[in-house]
Design brief:
Radius of gyration: 21 Å
Distance between the termini: 56 Å
Shape: elongated
Strand content: under 5%
Amino acid sequence: MDYNEQTDAFLFELQATISKFRSEFDLNHATIIGCLEMVKLDYLTDSGDVDFKADDHNDDEDYGDAF
């Protein structure tokens, strides 16, 4: 499978899983979206793939004279 096919397969499985849980449990849209947001936040804040480094300079010092 190429990247687009993998993306489609993931999307279809995710939609099927959400539909399954909606039918088996009494979950409303807000609860489902809240759970998805929690997973999204977890993925976004996971530093496994990205290495963030702090800047060495303070931006406030650079713009202090402009005001």
